[in-house]
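Subject: Sanity check before I submit

Could someone independently write out the structure tokens for this chain? I want to compare against mine line by line before I put it in a report. The sequence has 401 residues.
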Amino acid sequence: MEPVLSAYQLTKVYRIYRNPRDRIKEILFRRPYHEPMVALDHVSLEVPPGAALGVVGENGAGKSTLLGILAGVLKPTGGAVTRQGKVASILDLGGGFHSEFTGRQNIQMSAAMLGLGHKEIENSLDRIIDFSELHHFMDKPLKTYSAGMHIRLAFSVAVSVSPDLLVIDEVLAVGDAYFQKKCLDRLADFLENGGSIVFCSHSMYTVTQFCSQALWLRQGRAQAMGDAREVVAAYDDYTREKTRRMEQKDPFSRGAPAEGRSETPERSAAWIETCFLDGAHAGPDALYRLGDELLATVRFRTFRPEWKYHLGAAIDRNDHLTCYAVSTLSERLPCFSLNDAYEATFRIPRLPLLRGNYFLKLFLLDETGIRVLDTKTLPFTVVSEEEPWGVCYVPHEWKIH
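---
Independent answer below. Compare away.
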């Protein structure tokens, strides 16, 4: 099947002027008065029908520039882009909208810009408004909308005009938890029906769960391209090494969340109320030895009991190495649903870890396992006088010939 989107050797160079007069001098004297800044450097990719490509990388790596070119908003300095079918994009807050127009007028204008005729727009209008759930604001000017309402409107238009390709920057993070879940559900349906998606995200978990392929950009170049899990693993290794080097330069930058501390600052539709290590070895210092039982209790609540939830657990060493991760979804256990409060235990009968400082991370996930609703971290230490080196104990035997 032909790719919905293909890009070949895309390059984007911006001209940086020290002051506005240099632009005029450059025209008059026909010599450069600018410094070139390469935002994108010979990047190639393909997106087949029904596939999602995740774009990852640090701030300033060129992700937004790439998405702007793929969506047709920016013109590349070099290279070429080929698109098949209709393309819809959500690249920034209010992009393509007019602040003085009402929500209804902006829907009509955006749909027309995406190629819909007058009759198609009228037929789609109610569906777009229903998905956005902004009925009471439709006839108010856009300048009165919050950032989250902007996203609701933009996303509702983008997914309701039957595009072949969706290009999404990480603007969905602005929306509330309820609408984020609604958007992810719609995107999953969109993929199942043969649509294609390109989106950038700083959530590696979302990329690995949602995308089959990923592109890692570093300083405008494609550092890695391929299977999403492999690319994310390579990017994670890079960020861990970078963090380690920074901590060596500045020892005071080290640190991990305190016991039971949430890493998600905003309370969403569901949240972990409390979690703790218990058992014989879970005192104030949480000291364990190889082979000890590790038992954690987690309690979470929700004001949307009709939703379905999963729990996940991961063990990270204090140098950010993930030793193990699992979830009730990956083990095909039933969802948590129809109650407003839950309690569960996570048990490792015989801890296989060797000496070191570790963190048990507990995750509250949505039904798909894509969105992390809340996270809490519990530190613990494994001690020993005599043990081999490494992360975990591997049963073995020696045979002398």
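---
OP: Matches mine. For the report I'm noting this point. Helices lie at 21-29, 63-71, 103-113, 118-132, 147-160, 177-192, 204-210, 228-249.
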